[in-house]
Design brief:
This protein is mainly alpha-helical and about 200 residues long. Helix content is about 50%, strand content about 10%. Helix 2 (about 30-60) crosses helix 3 (about 60-70), helix 2 packs across helix 9 and helix 7 (about 125-135) packs across helix 8. It binds fe (iii) ion.
């Protein structure tokens, strides 16, 4: 079993940041809504755009895709993405018969360099336990219903290994450029809770 960081204890920097935020909000120097907007920006917009570029390249270039699946960290580093919380990346390819989804059952291990900050639901106990017990139920809640003959594989992230799901390229996107393809890729698709 791979190790994770302690699930419930806040780290020293986290405690300091929390205290600082409360102080600044309390003094009216910052607005907690502005802080939330900032977090949303990194959760949903800035961070996952990196992963989307990787996915779009893999959809466009079979050689790159083969490399990505064989050595995720090196192929991702080609874009300059890497470092903390993403040193050892494994990329999981969704196919007609296999759907991959990623969880961290113990805490919130997440591939920061390609996806940014983990969403709140990813860190919450219901997702962390249900993803393992009832993955199809979780997918259904996210709006994804898979045929019975599709195998669902659930991957448990750890401090050592982080996963990125390579979604299936949508039908009818043959003429699209890499940039256009990247626009189709969502954060949740790369966690594997939706199709793309
Ligand atoms: Fe973890």
């Amino acid at each position: 079993m791979a190790t994770h960081r302690s699930p419930r204890q806040l780290t020293e920097p986290e405690i300091r940041i929390k205290a600082l935020e409360e102080l600044l909000v309390g003094k009216g120097l910052i607005d907690s809504k502005a802080v939330d907007a900032m977090i949303d920006l990194y959760e949903n917009k800035v961070g996952p755009r990196n992963g989307a570029k990787v996915v779009a390249r893999a959809w466009s270039d079979p050689d790159y895709k083969a490399w990505l699946l064989k050595d995720g960290s090196a192929a991702i580093a080609e874009f300059g993405f890497g470092g903390a919380e993403g040193e050892n990346m494994i990329v999981l390819e969704n196919t007609e018969k296999v759907h991959n989804m990623v969880v961290c059952t113990l805490c919130s291990c997440y591939p920061w360099p390609v996806l940014g900050l983990p969403p709140v639901w990813y860190k919450d106990a219901p997702y962390r336990s249900r993803a393992v017990i009832d993955p199809r139920g979780v997918l259904k809640d996210f709006g994804l219903e898979l045929d019975d003959d599709v195998e669902v594989r659930v991957w448990d992230s750890s401090a050592e290994v982080r996963y990125l799901v390579l979604p299936r390229r949508p039908e009818g996107t043959g003429g699209m450029s890499e940039e256009e393809l990247a626009e189709l890729v969502t954060r949740d698709g790369m966690i594997g809770v939706v199709a793309v």
